[in-house]
Amino acid sequence: xxxxxxxxxxxxxxxxxxxVTPAQGDPTTCQExxxxxxxxxxxxxxxxxxxxxxxxxxxxxxxxxxxxxxQDKIDQTTLxxxxxxxxxxxxxxxxxxxxAGDCALEAGTTGAEGDCADPLQHPVTTPEExxxxxxxxxxxxxxxxxxxxxxxxxxxxxxxSLDETSPRCSGLDCTTPLPNxxxxxxxxxxxxxxxxxKAGIKYLLKREKILxxxxxAGGTQTxxxxxxNLEVAPFLAKAADAKETLIRRKCGNNRVPTASPPFCCRTGxxxxxxxTLSSPVATPQDCTAVANHFIMPNKTCNAGTLNCDSVMGPNxxxxxxETCPESDTCTGTLASIDDLITCVDTSADTIVNELxxxxxxxxxxxxxxxxxxAP
Length: 375
Known about the structure:
Number of strands: 6
Strand content: 5-15%
Largest sheet: 2 strands, parallel
Shape: elongated
Number of helices: 12
Order of helices and strands: HHHHHHHHHHEEHEEEEH
Structural class: mainly alpha
Oligomer: single chain
Distance between the termini: 58 Å
Strand order of the largest sheet: 1-6
């Protein structure tokens, strides 16, 4: 081989390597890309799950969620996000930003988080694996939030278990009493629950994006959450107000979070009902397990006429948690729509803190410390 030909081969090889190997020494671009691309991942993940659960509630799809349509959309976005992060981040960049060389972002984990931390399932030896590691942890937190918002489908969303052993969710802390796990059909209660979910997700995504912008500019959790920080505080308040407005518009002001609201089991013949399959003697699952039987939320079976009668009164129940699942003490009862909104607030804020902890590990987490239940 001539020297000229050998030189050309070497140059082509170097050029090809440059196409597949991200440039090192540009951690700022890497950090910005991580924030931008994971926002895209979280938005698609959350909205796909909520759309699927809304359609399942209405009986338009059979479930469980995510169905194939939702999963295909998530998978497509995940591939794009992984490729974009890998193109912008070398492992050297990640190390300079404070990321460890493995995926054990928390210690002593089980369930979905344990799978993320497992070096056999999620090694971090390439930029692609680094991106997939972050996506894994983000997905577990996102499913936890969806389960909290869609209380009537929490077990479905988390793959059965709701604690730290869940195969899909980061564990919910307080789940007793467990809300009825059932479709809410085409009802005002379903409209309320869907409104809660959409409002909560918009708030979480907006809050994290605002704080990410502050963090990317060099801010710490303390400086970014300073109520006197006029580049952050007014926008966080605006996001919180928008969330509350949407929930109240969809739910009204008199909804009471109730784990087991009354229901009537309609038999499918006009408005006839079966008292043996209606509350309080049966569960929604007892009713829907029978062919052509449907639950009618917030109604009772009038044994005198065997028809479903509306539950009268100013305060209507919403199938939801009676204790906030993100409570540190698992005490206190959610007794009003105000309590429910506060629970969505505090839960979203806690999860955002967790997500930012994963994403900005600089200065050994001193800038963006992890919540107290995480290392």
